[in-house]
C-alpha cells in the first residue's frame, strides 16, 4: 500500500518524496540482482551500485521513468561485460527522465550504453572503455542516445569505440560537454540531430575529433543548429579502424572537426591542433542517395575564432604529399569540398579569416579522385540564426 | 491442420490422464491473476494447464501454431491463447488479432523429444486494463513448477542438432524489447496472415473470434519451404524474425530498415541501403542487401553469425538458423534489384 502511494505520487508528476533506494553489490548473482532491481524500481527510485567489479554475461536494461542509477564513481564501480554472451549493448534505457552516473563499463560486445526514445536523459561521470584500445572488433558506440529529446552528457570518458565514442543520433536539445573521447574512430558525433551544443570537451587520439553529420534514409533527418565551441581537438592521428561499410570508415585520419550535410553550424573558440588532414572539414554527403527529403549539402557552417595549429601537414588521401608541397608545407586549416546548395545559401563562412582550400568538386557524389584542389577563401560572414535554442533543457542540470 | 492435430494429441493425453488419475479436475483460469496488478510468482497461479508438465491446457485455453515461426535456437514452442468468457477477439485485417482485456497468450519453450522433453521456460503475455504485460517463467529441472524469472536466466541446453549452448531466458525488459511498438508492449505472433484459416474458423466456431479476418493465412508454411516460393518464404521469415524491431516504432526504428511483410519499398527493405549504426555488425559490407550477392549483404552476414554485437536478432538466438540463412540468401541471390515480390 505504501508502495502504491509512492508510485501514485510519481505518476502525478510531483517529485516523489519517498523514493526508495535499492542497493546492489557485486559478486555471485550480480547479473540477476542488478537486472531485477532495474525491473522492480518505481519512478523516482535510486539504484545504487556499490563499489566493485560486476561480472556480467547479458545486457542490462531499464524501462522505468525517472530512475537514477548511481555507482560509487567511475573508478570504483565497474560493469564488466568481457564475458557478455547476449544482447546488442551493455545497458539499454528506454524510459524517460533517467539519470546514469558514477560508474564505468568495460568491453561490451556491442554498444556501451544505448538510450532509445529516452527523453531528458542525463549521463554524468560515466566511463565506457574497450580495454584493448582501438580495434575493429570493439563495439560501435560507447555512449549512444538516439531518438530522444533532451540529452545531457557531462563529464564522461569514452575510449576504443569502433565508430563514435559519444554518438547522439536522431535527437534534439542536446548538450555534450566536459567529456573526454580518445582512441575512438570518431570522438564525438552528432548525427541527424538538431539544437546541439558540444562544448568544453577533449577529443584526442581519435581518427576524427568531432563530427556533425546528416545522413539520408533515416526516420529523422535535417540535422542542424549545432554549436561546437571551446573544445580541445588534438592529435587525432589514430588510423581509421572502423569496420568497412560504416559511414565513419570514410573519415580521414587527422580530421579535427568535420561537418557534413548540416545547416547552421557554429564552430568557434576551439583549440584544434595536430590534426594532419584538416582542422575543419565542411563537405556534402559523399554517397549516392535516393531520398527526396534529404539535403546533402552543408549550409551556413561558420568557422569562428579558433586556434588551429599543426594541421594539414600529412593529409590522409592520395596525392596528399604533393598537395602539401604545393601549398608550401601544410594545407590551410579549412577544407571545403566545393559543393553548396543551389539556393544560394553559402556552404561555409569564416569570421576570423580562417584560410581554406577546396577540392573543387562540382557535383554531389563525385569522387575525390577528380578533385581540382585550389586555395579558397570563404565569405566572411554567415547568416544569423537563433543560437539560444541549442543545448539540453536547463532542468536537466539540476540532476548533476 | 497442425493446430487441430495438437488438440487431438492434447485430448488423447488428457483422456489418458483422466483414466490414470481419477482426481483430475480441470482448473479454471484465474482471471484475477491475469488482470490484477502484480506479478504472479508461479505459472500455476494462472491455472492455464491441467497438466502443466505435459502442457495440457485447461478448458478455454486454445493451442495454436504459426505458418512461419520465430527461430529460437531450435526450441519446440507450444503456443496457447486464452480469451475470457463472454468476450471475443476482434479481427484487424491480416495484422494482429485484437485481443480483449483479460486475454493471455502463452508460449512454452522446450527441448528434447517424447519422454526426454524438458520444458525450459513459459512466457506469458497478459492483457491488463493498462496494457499488455510480458513475464517469463522458468521451469525447474524436476518439471514440477515454473517460477517467475523477472531477471531472466541462462540455462545449458543441447539443441536438436546436438550443439551445447547457453540458452537465454529473457528478462522482463527483454521481453518488451521485441514486444514493443511506440513504447507499448504488444503481441507479435498471432497475426491473421500467419495463422491457418482452419484454426481461425475453429476460433470463430468456439465463439472466441468475431470473424475470420480478411487476409488471413497468407504467409507460407515454413515446414513446406522446400516447395515454396523463395521470395514469399524469405519475406515471411524476415517479417516474423526481424520486423518486430525493424519497423517504424520498433526497437530498431533508428536503423531505417523496415522488414515488415507489407513493406514494398526496396530501399526500406535494405536493398542498396548503407548501414547507420551497424558497427562491426556490417562485417565489412557496404549495404544491407546487395541484389544477386548474398555474401556481400549485411543482412545475411548478421543472420549467419552467433556472436553478440554482430548476430541478429540481438535477442532470442544464440545459434545460427541455417534454414533461415539459406532461404534469405537464395532470395537475395535471385534478386536483380529491380523487383520485389512476395
UniProtKB/TrEMBL annotation, chain A:
Record flagged with keyword Signal: yes
Which domain of life does this protein belong to?
A: Bacteria
Pfam hit, one: Beta_helix
What InterPro entries does UniProt report for this protein, alphabetically?
A: Beta_helix (IPR039448), PbH1 (IPR006626), Pectin_lyas_fold (IPR012334), Pectin_lyase_fold/virulence (IPR011050), SCF-Subunits/Alg-Epimerases (IPR051550), SO_2930-like_dom (IPR022442)
Q: What name goes with this protein?
A: Right-handed parallel beta-helix repeat-containing protein
Keywords, A to Z, come to: Repeat, Signal
Please list the coiled coil stretches: none
Question: Can you give the residue ranges of the Right handed beta helix domain?
Answer: 66-213
Q: Which residues does UniProt assign to the signal peptide? A: 1-19
Automatic annotation (TrEMBL), chain B:
Q: Which keywords fit this entry according to its UniProt record?
A: Heme, Iron, Metal-binding, Signal
Which InterPro entries does the UniProt entry name for this protein? Answer: Cyt_c-like_dom, SO_2930-like_C
- The answer on whether this UniProt entry bears the keyword Ubl conjugation reads no
Q: Does the keyword Metal-binding apply?
A: yes
Q: Could you name the domain of life of the organism this protein comes from? A: Bacteria
The record places domain Cytochrome c at 157-274
| Identification of the protein by name | Cytochrome c domain-containing protein
Under the heading PROSITE patterns, the entry gives: CYTC
Tell me the first and last residues of the signal peptide. 1-22
